Amino acid sequence: MEQIVTYLSAEQIAERVKALGAEIHRDYEDKRLVVVIVLKGSFVFAADLIRAVDTHNLRVDFLGVRSYDGTESSGVVQIVNDLSRPIEHEDVLLVEDIVDTGLTISYLLDLLQTRKPRSLKVCALLHKPARAKIAVPIDYLGFTIEDRFVIGYGLDFAEKYRNLPFLGVLQRAQ
Ligand code: 5GP
After folding, report:
1. Domain with 44 in it
2. Residue 117 domain-assigned?
3. In angstroms, what is the span from residue 57 Cα to ligand 1's centroid?
4. What is the CATH number of the domain that holds 76?
5. In this structure, is residue 53 part of a structural domain?
6. Shortest CA distance to 10 belongs to which of 125, 145, 153?
7. Does 133 map to a domain?
8. 102-123, pLDDT tens digit by residue?
9. Are 120 and 112 in contact (CB under 8 A)?
10. Is the beta carbon of 156 within 6 A of some atom in ligand 1?
11. Residue 77 pairs with which residues in a beta bridge?
12. pTM for the whole structure
């Protein structure tokens, strides 16, 4: 039997997301922002984040990605759902749930750069520096976490637990 232990509560997350939203609002106040949400893991975080950015000059788009090999990131990413519109000359903010090895975000940044946005920044809810394989710039970061596999708030384990309102870790019950 496995038990879910709270790692970051819904309240802790909400407070941090609100602060990130205010920071993003300040930086993009006079710009038109395109928020690119990386599916599936980021959709819950992004839904809260965009509502914390107090501007009407914002559009969202989605990038559906799948890692080629199961649990260990290989950095080879398959695009299963591409952006619906071009991002050339746009100010783009890429929203990720978690930067682990950094390989996925690094691949996505390279891909999006080829489409010539005016600017391209990264907002990640979580960062696990202990597992970094490549340095990636994270312009807006929610939390730095230790090397634990977290679930909930959009993040899954075998497609389960995305709907937990908090971030948790799985522990074997005694
Ligand atoms: P990276 O390429 O940075 O190693 O991998 C990033 C992706 O791996 C994330 O977008 C996420 O899908 C998955 N991932 C990495 N660490 C975790 C974790 O602790 N929990 C969950 N649920 N997914 C993770």
Report:
1. 11-147
2. yes
3. 30
4. 3.40.50.2020
5. yes
6. 153
7. yes
8. 999 999 999 999 999 999 999 9
9. yes
10. yes
11. 67
12. 0.95
